[in-house]
Amino acid sequence: MSLSNDHSRSPPGPAAPVVLGIDAPTLGTLQQLQREFGSVVALTTVNGRNALFINDAEDIRTLLVRHHARYLKGPGFERVKMLLGNGLIVSDGDIWRRSRRMIQPSFSRQNVHRLLSVMTRCTESRMEAWEKVVAEGGTLDITQEMSDFSLELILRCLFGGDYDTKLMRTGENPFAFLSKESERNLRVVLQVRETRQLILEIICDRRQHADHEEYDFLSGYLAATDKDGKGFSDEELLDEIVTLIVAGYETSAGTLNWAWYLLATHPESEAALLEEARQWLTDRDKVDEAALSAMTFTGAVLEETLRLYPPVWLFTRRAAADDALKNYRIKAGTDIYLSPYILHRTETYWPEPDVFAPGRFAEATDSRKGERPYFPFSLGPRRCLGEYFSFLEMKVHLGLLVQKFRMTVTTESPPELDLGINLRSAQSIILRPQLRSKSEMSVAGSKA
Predict the structure, then answer these.
(1) β 335-338/40-44 pair status
(2) Pairwise CA distance, residues 59 & 40, whole Å
(3) Residue 442 — pLDDT band, cuts 50, 70, 90?
(4) Hey, which bits of 271-332 come out as E strands?
(5) Which of 1, 187, 268, 317 places its Cα 20 to 30 Å from the Cα of 54?
(6) Cα 320 to chain center, whole Å?
(7) Chain segment 308-330, per-residue pLDDT in tens
(8) Which residue, among 436, 405, 144, has the nearest Cα to 264 in the 3D structure?
(9) Residue 155 pLDDT > 80, yes or no?
(10) Three-state secondary structure along 332-352?
(11) Three-state secondary structure call for residue 81
(12) In which band, very low, low, confident or very high, does the pLDDT at 65 lie, cut at 50, 70 and 90?
């Protein structure tokens, strides 16, 4: 009997137990296992659990899309739950399905488009700050800049006018520790818990004033009801809001950090993005969905950035029931390890996988067709709800700022990776901003 028809056979793998976590040694271990045993590896972890590392694109899609109901969150999510509570990223089963259905309308295209002016204002604020840096001949810690930008933006999109009147009432951002602390340790968990009282105060005030007219994510969450007409409790709402703040900020901050570095080191891609931005974003007062949708090369830059540096570099699942993929059987209780970082850099799927080439995602290439070996935002029903919002935010940011500034690197050494829960640069990326020449600026229009 051929392997393709014999689900009783186990994939190859090492005899000795394997140490797996969410760290740099784990990446090295998984890469070595792939080289030795192939795209599906059976192993036993040091704590005695049966596990599979899957790097086969078809199997990954089957598991996350068609067979998603047979899997729960896997090892490592205990740490995430301590930080986020039982929000959408962590929850499973009926709790997850109810929350997902209730939250989804808040991220509809129509509602996200209502936040474009917030994205523009936050970008303009960054532009003014960078102009001062240029005038002083300074450099930018682009890693910190993107953290600050993304955190302010998600908070303004979440709380609307309450950002200025309630969140910033002391003059300091109570969530600033998220952008200043790279570790997601117990201290950060405690700091997040301290902010929940402030969030609860804002929630209670909103519940008492149903006449809130401005759209923001909090108003959408408060209006959400399940099939029985029941809304979120305060505790449920707190978990979902903390999840949105942390996950929404970290994804965009990390992607923009890498995107600015890649553009600074790939002038041809920067020039193409600049040309597109000049065509569609010459008037900041007319940043709309049509213009952003037309910015296909900017989208390709972001997708290629996410291919090389997916925000979550390691996903885990646990089989809740027996399952069978195309070549083997998975027993209930098996832990599953999936790595977008490794899949996205596998030469079988991506020629010259370590090369930054946004053209891979141009409309005419195969990578835009069918089922791509690509899942920076996961796949299937658990695919990130905020993906569209994040792309609009990043297009506005890059499209407006690239017309004003050219970035150059200050060191020839490429950034190292910090492989925690999120993939970050191990050290801050320092770039030198320069104003574009008057001839360059005139092409972009008086408002660009």
Answers:
(1) unpaired
(2) 9
(3) very low
(4) 315-319, 323-324, 329-330
(5) 1
(6) 26
(7) 999 999 999 999 999 999 889 99
(8) 405
(9) yes
(10) CCCEEEECHHHHHCCCCCCCC
(11) helix
(12) very high
Confidence tier at 135 by pLDDT (50, 70, 90) = very high
H/E stretch holding 291: helix 289-294
Q: Which two tokens stand for residue 280?
A: 């569609």
Query: Tokens 């209502």 identify what position?
Result: 114
Query: Residue written as tokens 């609860």?
Result: 200
CB burial readout 147-185, b (16+ within 10 A) else e: bbbbbbbbbbbbbbebbeeebeeeeebbbeebbeebebe
Is residue 208 predicted with pLDDT exceeding 50?
A: yes
More confident of the two residues 54 and 420: 54
Contact 245, 175 (CB under 8 A): yes
Tokens 């969410």 — which residue?
22
pTM for the model stands at 0.93
pLDDT tens string 6-56: 555 789 999 999 999 989 999 999 999 999 999 999 999 999 999 999 999
The gap from C-alpha 425 to its chain's centroid, in whole angstroms, comes to 14
Other residues' Cβ atoms within 10 Å of the Cβ of residue 67: 18
Other beta carbons within 10 angstroms of residue 310's beta carbon come to 26
Average pLDDT over residues 373-380: 94
Kindly list the distances between the CA atom of residue 283 and the CA atoms of 120, 299, 318, 342, 445, in Å, as whole numbers in the listed order.
11, 19, 49, 40, 7
User: Strands 140-141 and 323-324, how do they pair?
Assistant: unpaired
Would you state the structure tokens that stand for residue 256, as one six-digit string? 């923009």
Q: Residue 72: which of 341, 336, 383 has the closest Cα?
A: 336
In the prediction, which pLDDT does 439 show?
61
Between the alpha carbon of residue 358 and those of residues 305, 367, 414, 416, the distances in Å are 8, 11, 19, 21
Q: Which amino acid belongs to residue 43?
A: L
One-letter amino acid at 338 equals L
What's the gap between Cα 39 and its chain centre? 25
Cα-Cα-Cα-Cα dihedral sign, residues 299, 304, 306, 309: negative
